[in-house]
Amino acid sequence: MTLLAVPIMVKSVDQALAAAAQAAEHGADLVEFRLDRLPPEVPLDSLGSLVERSPLPSIVTCRLQSEGGHFAGSEDCRLARLHAALHASRPPVYIDVELAAYEQSASFHQALDSLLGPPANELANTTGLILSYHDFKSRPPDLYQRLEAMAAAPHCRVAKVAWHARSLRDNLEAFEILLRRQKPTIALCMGPFGLPSRVLAKKFGALLTFASLDNDQATAPGQPSVTELKKLFRWDAVGPDTRVYGVIGYPVGHSLSPLVHNAGFTHTGFDGVYLPLPIPPEYEHFKATVSSWLDLPQLHFQGASVTIPHKENLLRFVRERGGEIEPLAERIGAANTLCVRPDGSLYASNTDYAAALSAVCDRLGIAPDALAGQQVAVIGAGGAARAIVAGFAQHGANVTIYNRTLQRAEDLAAEFSNPCPQNPRAGKVTAASLEKVHDSCCQVYINCTPIGMHPNVHDSPITETSSMRCWGPGTVVFDTIYNPVHTRLLRQARAAGCLTIPGTEMFLRQAAAQFTLWTSQDAPVAVFQRLLMDHLAESFTPGS
Ligand code: NAP
């Protein structure tokens, strides 16, 4: 069983015990008492009492500055702290010491061995030695020699390596180390790329992973909190066969997709976990990372949501790997969903346009084919507009693209107004400058610009509502923005009696379609919606 350990910087015995009690309440299995910041006024003999009274079994560590800790004193002083903790009547389950210190100083090594006793004695059976190595800058070139040295040290019960991940690919090396372990092992990646190694430690049989009590108390870069690990990333449900999904983008930290998809897995009992997967913008990064993740069979990487700047890269990648691409995604030139089929083949699709299409048709109470001949105004000519223009024109709607940069609207219109031999029913696509939207008369208006998005919540692409002569009960106004949910544009439209659709509808529908592609189950849309609304209410309360 892989344990969940909470590191606690010990500044006083009472504070550390209170933190340990909190860790126990949060469901942690272990605490790591970090003695490297111990103030001089704390008497050493109180350390035994700290370990004895801890509500959870403990690891005791006095980390050196050279390996990311705070201890700068003498080895004798360090040994005295470890000695005090080790000789508690209920000693710690592990002490953690850096391999470098163990190897470099014969006196420290001998003193530590004698503290632990011969490998088979009673104390050694109670307290195990973790030999560790940390690199906060990069992957150490001699990583495997260090692991071998740890494996060969007779007193070493657990090998621990932690390094700063240079990309998501470093996580795979952590998984390989765990798969090939000779003794209980901890292999973790630090920094913004390292989260998978922390969440999936359990999938690969690590001895433990670390999580902080809250984000301010993380002791290493990229360390999640216990709540994130347990509630968001489904720690208790992760096992060797858990399927792995994620959102690929750059950046991805803001994405709400992990929140909804992980909750969906929990709600449906699907054995999956969904992670943020940051990949730098260039195609070579995308290709190398996604290939390596797909090529480790024990990872069970089964699919991903793909967002800016990788939607075009996904198409190219799936094409190069001989996979299948949804025809309209090919025509749009961008896909947002990767699915690995049971035979290992790849499928790329675009659930964005279908989400927008179904949101509008449901609001109008019509089937998509009934869009034929309807006038649709799309405001904006970027990536979101592109997918929406393609989807509505494909179903026969006549689309006008209104954009600040007229040339961009014209280029997009030219692409999708080309006669499409496979679809003679496709609607016309034309272009106009943004202000001209005030002279328009359409059944559907879709805002695909960020105008009105937080923090510019008082803005709207419609500056003169009185000139919107066709707005009324039969008109649908759809704002793709979801932060805030009720944008100024939607308030204007409601005041004019229009039907309105917030951007959350598009987000929920594209996520639900992805969920079904991956799991072959209906997505729990009500669960998705509740989580999304709660999150947005917390994040975008007025004045925030
Ligand atoms: P994008 O590719 O950067 O395109 C942005 C478009 O907005 C461009 O046409 C740009 O005009 C226009 N624009 C930007 N700032 C403007 C301003 N101040 N005044 C007038 N026009 C402005 O972005 P995107 O990926 O298409 O995303 C657009 C919006 O769609 C986002 O803000 C997001 O809220 C929304 N979205 C929602 C979902 C969802 O699930 N609900 C999904 C995707 C996107 P120029 O060509 O003149 O620069």
Question: What report would you give on this structure?
Answer:
The chain is α/β, with parallel strands linked by helices and 544 residues long. The protein is built from 20 helices and 20 strands. The strands form 3 sheets. The protein has an 8-stranded parallel sheet. The longest helix is centred in the C-terminal third of the chain and has 17 residues, at 503-519. The chain is elongated. The model has no long low-confidence stretch (mean pLDDT 95). Bound molecules: NADP nicotinamide-adenine-dinucleotide phosphate.
Gist of the model:
The protein has 544 residues and is α/β, with parallel strands linked by helices. Helix content is 38%, strand content 19%. The chain has helices spanning 13-25, 45-53, 75-86, 99-104, 106-116, 122-126, 143-152, 169-179, 195-199, 226-232, 257-268, 283-294, 311-320, 327-332, 351-364, 383-394, 406-417, 488-495, 503-519, 525-539, and strands at 3-9, 30-34, 58-61, 94-98, 128-135, 156-164, 185-190, 208-210, 243-249, 272-278, 301-306, 324-325, 337-340, 346-349, 375-379, 398-403, 429-433, 444-447, 476-479, 499-501.
